[in-house]
Amino acid sequence: MVSRLALTISLGAVFIFGAHAVEKPKKTKKQTTLGLYLTAAEVHKKITTNKKVLFIDIRTRAEVNFLGMPSQADANIPYMVMPEFYSWNKKKHGFALKPNNDFSNALEKRLTAKGLDKNAEVILMCRSGSRSAKAVNLLAKLGYKSVFTVVDGYEGRKAKTGLTKGQRTVDGWKNSRLPWTYKLDPKKMYNVSLN
To answer: Domain 19-188 in CATH: superfamily?
Structure first.
């Protein structure tokens, strides 16, 4: 009886609040000051039915180049970039990244080009949800009110067990089999000269 009551309450909450109300992420590095979260599957549904949304892939150029990007993304604007002189990040076991100082300006240009402003819904996707949370917090400080982070990102979470333990095989845009492509559109790429 308790389980039926819980199910009824859960279904009622989905009906009242909408199916895109994603639970606050447990990891603090994925939480945002705006508290707006979507899964990759929810993003796909939202952008298919609502054209007044700006959907930005904020991964680095290398990630987009070698791993592809969502077909429906409006653009790629890297939130983080590799410095001119590569340095090693011991903690991350890889090359260091630094914030892209042009991120907010480039995003505003994309908004304007789509006929939108800072009040429009903006969706940010990175690899797994941490960078997009930081980017949301930056935009919130700049006056944006409706910026969502994709909590499972493009590649999803790491499997905790099984043959793929430690690999990003759980949820995310690609693992959810949502439309993506290796064939990049230069008009969607950050600072590409079309000479």
So the answer is: Rhodanese-like domain (3.40.250.10)
